[in-house]
Design brief:
about 140 residues, alpha+beta, 3-stranded antiparallel sheet, 4 helices, about 40% helix
Length: about 140
């Protein structure tokens, strides 16, 4: 049975257990004054709120798992082709949109891939090595 809070015009506040089928009280049992039912905001457990950290993490985890279904196979295909994407996440978008090795390696798709390729080519001609060749400095230098 639910409990209901009432208050009367004289300021008495009291709680009554009533079934759903019972009529609401109309008079105060202490002084006979007119009463009204006090309505409170419903309590919603934090785990049930979509803005709670637990709910947000559950949504993010679900989105992460969905993205892995697309990204992991794309990542593996790129690796087989000799590329090293920065991350597994976003590999499907890189595979679909990247036009240069540099884009795949950096993890960012250029808005102007021809200019990017020209810059990479110019760098490699000038420096004499690939932009992907790691540069090791001698100790003490």
């Amino acid at each position: 049975m639910p409990n209901y809070d009432y208050s009367c015009e004289q300021g008495h506040i009291f709680e009554i257990y009533q079934s759903f089928t019972e009529e609401a009280l109309t008079v105060c049992p202490e002084d006979g004054e007119k009463v009204h039912r006090i309505i409170y905001a419903a309590y919603i457990a934090s785990a049930a709120r979509p803005t709670s950290p637990g709910a947000i993490q559950a949504v993010q985890k679900n989105e992460y798992e969905k993205s892995l279904e697309k990204d992991l196979p794309a990542y593996k295909r790129l690796r087989k082709q000799g590329f090293q994407p920065k991350s597994t996440l976003g590999a499907a978008a890189l595979e679909a949109g990247a036009t240069t090795k540099f884009e795949v390696q950096s993890g960012k798709i250029s808005k102007e891939p021809k200019k990017l390729q020209q810059a990479v080519d110019m760098f490699e001609q000038t420096m004499g090595h690939s932009v992907f060749t790691p540069q090791v400095k001698p100790k003490g230098a």
